[in-house]
Amino acid sequence: MAPNSVTAAHFQSNVRTWWAVNPTLYHALDQLYQAFKVTITHQQAAALFASEKDKSRSWNQHLLYLIALCQESESHERLVVENIVKYAAPHLKIAMMVRYQPSCTDYLTHIQEIIAWAQEIENDGKVVKIMTKGIVSAVKHGKVQGHYQGEDRKCFN
């Protein structure tokens, strides 16, 4: 929280009262939450669940976002799983649908497994891109295994 924000000012002005009622951080944060609670209708939740993952978010951040959305809109946890599987990036969508088991009833554990796998796939792709980028730049600059272009070789065996 920024020190000059409305939320911080509200917290600072009420923290002593909250602490006198119940001296726990949980109580203070609960009171703060009640003061700034956001209500989301089922229609708004449906639109938010149908949106794709923001590219700047990691899979774990996206999962936390969807769980918070699920709790605020009082939706079923199954929507979290369906959002992640149905609205995944095209290069992961089919593979995620194969790993998805609709018969699984522990939705959050199941989706955490799928997300861990997807994050691993994306991280492996980044490593491959970084490695190939170095190789491509070495070839572009004419240096391959210590040899330079322009050498007068008659035989390359």
Task: Write a compact overview of the structure shown.
The chain is mainly α. It is 66% helix and 3% strand.
Description of the structure:
The structure is a single chain. The chain has 157 residues and is mainly α. It folds into 2 domains: 1-37, no CATH class; 39-121. 66% of the residues lie in helices and 3% in strands. It is built from 7 helices and 2 strands, in the order αααααααββ. It has helices spanning 6-21, 25-35, 42-49, 59-73, 78-86, 90-99, 107-140, and strands spanning 143-144, 147-148. It has a two-stranded antiparallel sheet with strand order 1-2. Strand 1 and strand 2 form a beta hairpin. Helix 3 (42-49) runs antiparallel to helix 4. The longest helix is centred in the C-terminal third of the chain and has 34 residues, at 107-140. The protein is elongated. The termini are far apart.
Give the radius of gyration: 25 Å
- Tally of helical runs: 7
Q: How many individual domains? A: 2
Structural class label: mainly alpha
**Structural shape:** elongated
Distance between the termini: 66 Å
Largest sheet: 2 strands, antiparallel
Average pLDDT: 76
Poorly predicted segments = none
Give a count of the beta strands, DSSP E runs of length 2 or more. 2
Kindly estimate the percentage of residues that lie in beta strands according to DSSP.
under 5%
The share of residues in helices is 55-70%
Topology order in helix (H) and strand (E) letters = HHHHHHHEE
Strand order of the largest sheet: 1-2
